[in-house]
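Can anyone check this?
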Amino acid sequence: MESYFYLNQYDSVEKYAKMILEKGSVNAGAQNKASLFLGKAAMGKRDYETAKDELLATINAAQDEHGAEAKYRLAEIFFATKEYKQCYETLLSLNADFGSYTEWVGKSYLLIADYFEATGDLFQTKATLQSLIDNFPLDEVKKQAAEKLKKIESDELKKQTQMKNDTIGNGKN
């Protein structure tokens, strides 16, 4: 199931995930993972309504890492469909409900920074990223935050330079 997912063969993911879910004797962890992968496969197909249903089913059944990832993926869908308020609320609830899953909390804060940027709050964007750089325990999250912050600051510098050039250019006319 996972291998097919990484090969972007979403129909095969669905086939094997459903086989796992149909077997009654499979442990809850495997069922939660299969449910999560059904949602991820639907996301891969850009079938966001089906993905939402599958991810919500995973969240309702799983209080483990699969539930944390499902909640994160749900927030990604809300972000991708520009449902920013739902995205933000989902990420806050992920951090409250699944705070012990550090990787998903870190990813959620990176997406919160994206949310702030998409809604035009660059101050909060930069503050969130700087807080991750200064305080977050996972190096990969710190690295991603630093890259995002560097890009934002670079873009700001380009805008300032362009504005100066425009002002100087207008003064000569």
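Reply from J.R.: I decoded it. The two ends are 65 Å apart (CA to CA).
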